[in-house]
Specification:
This protein is an all-beta fold. It has a single domain, classed as Thrombin, subunit H (Beta Barrel). The chain contains no helices and ten strands. The strands form three sheets. Strands 4-5-6-7 form a four-stranded antiparallel beta sheet, with no helix packed on it. A hairpin with a 2-residue loop joins strand 1 (2-8) and strand 2 (11-17).
Length: 107
Amino acid sequence: MGIFVGHRRPASVVAIDTAKGEILNNVGACGDADDLFYDGARKRLHVSCGDGHVAIFDATSGLTETSMISTRKGARTSLFVPALDRLFVAVPMSGDQLAEIWVYAPK
């Protein structure tokens, strides 16, 4: 059993073996991380960051970043719903752009 922890400074994600209390891996991540969700069906980790990105990591290969999706600066709050197979990202208002909820379907 393990747990993933996101750090803002320095921007990173740490994988910890909870049975042994050991750090398995520590990798760089997008900045201002807020929410991390594990997609058990795909063995991936979704990390939403306020720097305007969602980073996707392969959890089976030592947390290799497989893709980075652009959002909007400040869009750090998200929710992954496995039953719907969707990642919802709260995108804040910016200038004349209204606040929105963006929906992503993992591939």
